[in-house]
Amino acid sequence: MNSIKKMYMDLGISENVYEYCNEKWNACKDNFAQIDSVSEYNQLKVLTAMQNNKISDAHLLGSTGYGYTDIGRDALERVYADIFHTEDALVRSQITCGTHALTVALFGNLRPGDELIYVTGKPYDTMEGIIGIDESKECPGSLREYGIKYKQADLLPDGSFDYDTIKALINKKTKIIAIQRSKGYSVRPTLSVSIIKECITFIKNINPDIICMVDNCYGEFVETLEPSDVGADMCVGSLIKNPGGGLAPMGGYIAGTKKCIENASFRLTTPALGKEVGASLNINQSLYQGLFMAPQVTASALKGAIFAANIYEGLGYKCIPDSKESRHDIIQSVAFKNADAVIAFCEGIQAAAPIDSHVKPEPYAMPGYHSDVIMAAGAFVSGSSIELSADAPIEPPYAVYFQGGLTWQHAKFGIMMSLQKMYDKGIAFPKNCIYK
């Protein structure tokens, strides 16, 4: 028995599971070359931005109090603007999550009487209360309460934009059109930058003054282009996802036009003060170093996603994307069709973690979600979904959403352990199956 195989077996992986996964690994590793090429390009893009802005050790220091003259914070925002090819950026620890970043962007740029249109169907669950989508529910502090109207164009059955409906919905009051790049808790395809470009071009041809905002969560550094390269006025995301590289302890970003960023900054802090205030404390080094590592970490997560698709597709489960499709975010969904399989999968991801591997995840009622949700993440940064993690709503089609992995090797082990838990419970294939 070779030493690596023995290590896996010492960690609880059975010979049947090891041999099956090893076969699938050999079948998919040739696909990794394209991921490495994109990662190399993005690494050079990040490096160029840091060098062009003359980042020095002084920028790694933080500030306290009001945060006036925080040169590290201000330079980091210039670096983000250069990477995303935008006029400006807002990159702050005071942005608590991706949902908060989107909230800041929307509230900063919408006014009473304006209309917001989502053209990718209903947004991620946590956005519904911010928008006030369900008019039968009281939503204190929502956009609806401030007199901002919401409209929605669903994607077509093949996952493409419904341009006829989008055109019919746009009117003089339309201020922002939002595009959610990733799938959220749905089983639709993630949108490529080229598809997003087509939609933005279509919208701008109708009215160039409409602000196009892209929820870019989970999509950063997956391609060589970002939505801001193809006309998005705002690109929004979380630092405990891709761009934080697993080192950012908190925060979010908005990259876009100078006016949009200024308006967003007035919402995040106060009118008139905007970007001038907001102490970075002692986290600048983590934000810079995490950003520097982000292209490689994102590549590791993508390799894990492809491996997962190969593993579970081979067992007859529906995977989105499938093992052959191009990738436009780091998320891999697998439709298991029953709750027991979802829970077993998440137990495996948790058991593979460096932190809290002894803990068993259980579904529970999380704020902002329609159903009980199970989340597995033994992470160094709490809730960091660029680290190995999985989550799922306990409702049909019982799809689990797997993402992250600071290293490819850890992502690989996490997938193997997820299968092991299912194997132990007789879910993935019979317990008496002997691998041949």
Class of secondary structure makeup? alpha/beta
- Strand content is 5-15%
Number of helices: 12
Q: How many runs of DSSP E, i.e. beta strands? A: 12
Q: Specify the helix fraction band.
A: 25-40%
The H-and-E topology, N to C, reads as: HHHHEHEHEHEHEEEHHEEHEEEH
Give structural notes.
The chain is α/β, with parallel strands linked by helices and 436 residues long. It has 12 helices and 12 strands. A 7-stranded mixed sheet has the order 1-7-6-5-4-2-3, with helices on both faces. The protein has a 5-stranded antiparallel sheet with strand order 8-9-12-11-10, covered by helices on one side. Helix 8 links the parallel strand 4 and strand 5. Helix 3 runs antiparallel to helix 10, helix 5 packs across helix 9 and helix 10 packs across helix 12. The chain starts with a helix and ends in a 12-residue tail after the last helix. The mean pLDDT is 95.
Quick summary:
The protein has 436 residues and is an alpha/beta fold. Helices cover 39% and strands 13% of the residues.
